[in-house]
Amino acid sequence: MSMPSDPAARAEAARTLHSWDLSPREAAVLQATLAPRVESADRLESIRRVAGLDVGFEARGRTARAAIVVLDAISLEPLDQAVARAPTRFPYVPGLLSFREIPVLLEAVARLRQLPDLLLCDGQGRAHPRRFGLACHLGLVLDLPTIGAAKSRLVGSHGELAAARGAWLPLEHQGEVVGAVLRTRSGVSPLYVSCGHRVGLATAIHWVLACARHYRLPETTRWAHRLASG
């Protein structure tokens, strides 16, 4: 059955994919169960709107704050944005951040006027111990194309990366290519790009570069950070 196109209805449907009231051990088991459902090949239509997301924490971590900004895919000018706050209900556990962040991200998605065609997440996709980082999880529950574009490496290794913008190398973990290390600006530290859901690796690299025209971080991430800290 197809997912609804209305953002609020899509977010509500996403909440029902599984229970969010889980222990860290249960969450890790669920990641391993859901990972085979992630599509790491292109299944996306015309990309007109791209979105970036950011989650921060207030009140000594008791409140989660999510920001989402939707940009025109060509001009990278903002078209829509939303902020949501919710009680933090899951502890900070490396590798399980999606369970801490997605509930409040869904609240922000529900406040958009239109769904984006592609989500660029400031986090991991398949470059994750159980191949189910934030980008995979969010893409699966929303049934939207997603890409992970992280500032740091969680798993994997790679060779020496050339200094020029656009240079990239496979990121390998346990004999599998799980992503790419990508130079988005010459002479600046790279990003770690991986498939989230419904996007192949070559397409993920293309869109991260297309959205990172002048800076290390994609404009989607920069706008979301700006909104979250404003």
Describe the fold and architecture.
The structure is a single chain. With 230 residues, the protein is α+β, with helices and mostly antiparallel strands. It is built from six helices and eight strands. It is globular and about 45 Å long. The longest helix is centred in the middle third of the chain and has 13 residues, at 97-109. The relative contact order is 0.18. It has helices at residues 7-14, 24-34, 97-109, 134-142, 201-211, 219-229, and strands at 49-58, 63-72, 78-87, 118-121, 146-150, 168-173, 176-182, 191-197. Helix 3 packs across helix 4. It has a single domain (7-229), classed as archaeoglobus fulgidus dsm 4304 superfamily (archaeoglobus fulgidus dsm 4304 fold, 2-Layer Sandwich), CATH 3.30.2170.10. Strand 1 and strand 2 form a beta hairpin. The protein has an eight-stranded mixed sheet, sandwiched between helices.
Observed structural traits:
archaeoglobus fulgidus dsm 4304 fold; 6 helices; alpha+beta; single chain; 8 strands
Produce the secondary structure layout.
Blueprint: H1 7-14, H2 24-34, E1 49-58, E2 63-72, E3 78-87, H3 97-109, E4 118-121, H4 134-142, E5 146-150, E6 168-173, E7 176-182, E8 191-197, H5 201-211, H6 219-229
Briefly characterize the structure.
It is built from six helices and eight strands, in the order H-H-E-E-E-H-E-H-E-E-E-E-H-H.
How big a fraction of the residues is strand? 25-35%
CATH fold label: archaeoglobus fulgidus dsm 4304 fold
Main sheet: strands, sense, barrel: 8 strands, mixed
CATH architecture: 2-Layer Sandwich
Uncertain parts: none
Order of helices and strands: HHEEEHEHEEEEHH
CATH homologous superfamily placement:
archaeoglobus fulgidus dsm 4304 superfamily
Shape: globular
Instruction: Please give the order of strands in the largest beta sheet.
Output: 3-2-1-4-5-8-7-6
Counted by DSSP, the helix tally is 6
End-to-end separation: 39 Å
Total E-strand runs = 8
| CATH level-1 class | Alpha Beta
Coarse structural class: alpha+beta
Helix content: 25-40%
The radius of gyration over CA amounts to: 16 Å
Mean pLDDT: 95
Question: How many domain regions?
Answer: 1
